[in-house]
Amino acid sequence: MRAKQMPALALVVAAAALSLTGCNSSDGSSASASTSASTTASGSTGGTSTGGKGSTSGSSSGSGTGSGTAGQAQSSTSAPRCKTDSLAPSATASGVEGEIVVNLKNTGSTKCSMHGFPGVQLVGPDGLGDTGPDAARSDASASTVTVGAGEETRFLLHFSQDTSGSGKKYTRLDVTPPNETVGEIVNLDDLAVTVSPSSGTVPDVIVDPVGYHVGSGK
Question: Where are the beta strands (DSSP E) in 53-140?
């Protein structure tokens, strides 16, 4: 009886061993497959990463191209700085006492832009040798203005008109556009400015930044 039971027990043990071997084999296969997949993914990632760098570089190049395109688009919507020789200045009354509107008309064939304060100096009837004070800047905020061909932008000039009879009369302005170094003479005609010697505490003449108004003769 024991002899009959032994084979059965051996059979059970063998089956268990086979089962364990199968499990180990399965685990090994899984680990192997997992390792293989991991290696493949890692290699793949590495490839993508390299390609990614290439792509990033390409993307950067693409960004560069994109930037270039954006830059071109920006260039098409923005404009180069307005130069003195492409601007025709003129002065008109603002309707407010002690204030003159100075117009800067773009006489060029393409649009241009300006940002900031113009330089303004009073000039007497005797020419550039007969100059008065430079206008001080107001505390107004400057903004960039784009002026189309044939259009104009403006700025305001404020001054304290002297009525004492002892002030100096100036019949012209020397106007220098923002970021330019050369000015243009503007005749004031009946808008002549008469100012007294500066007290040293309050400027006689104050200029606002360009951009008071942009338009065609408006």
Answer: 87-93, 99-106, 112-115, 119-124, 127-134, 136-137
